[in-house]
Amino acid sequence: PTFTFTVDGVDSGAIARRLAERNIFVWSGYYYAWEPASVLGLREGPGAVRIGLSHYNSAAEVDGLVAALDEVCR
Predict the structure, then answer these.
(1) Which tens digit of pLDDT belongs to each residue from 6-64?
(2) How far apart are the C-alpha atoms of 1 and 62, rounded to whole Å?
(3) Which of 18, 42, 53, 55 has the fewest CB atoms in 10 Å of its CB?
(4) In this structure, how many other beta carbons lie within 10 angstroms of the beta carbon of residue 46?
(5) pLDDT at residue 47, rounded to an integer
(6) Which residues contact 47 (CB under 8 A, 6 or more apart)?
(7) How large is the greatest C-alpha to C-alpha distance in the chain, in angstroms?
(8) Other C-beta atoms within 10 Å of 29: how many?
């Protein structure tokens, strides 16, 4: 499962960098999806944050991600 999001007023690249400082690695930008970015209104900005989870991630890792997102997206 992958989810993509933006936060009003917060640069997606900054979110990715702040998460990386916490050893949580995500992607930011357009992901070679220029046309979908256009449809979603993301072309004029820094893109979006993309997070991929898998069955290998533990519940504790997901909880840590949610807590880190709460901190870095303020």
Answers:
(1) 998 899 999 999 999 999 999 998 877 888 888 888 877 788 999 999 999 999 999 99
(2) 12
(3) 55
(4) 17
(5) 85
(6) 12, 13, 28, 29, 30, 31, 37
(7) 36
(8) 16
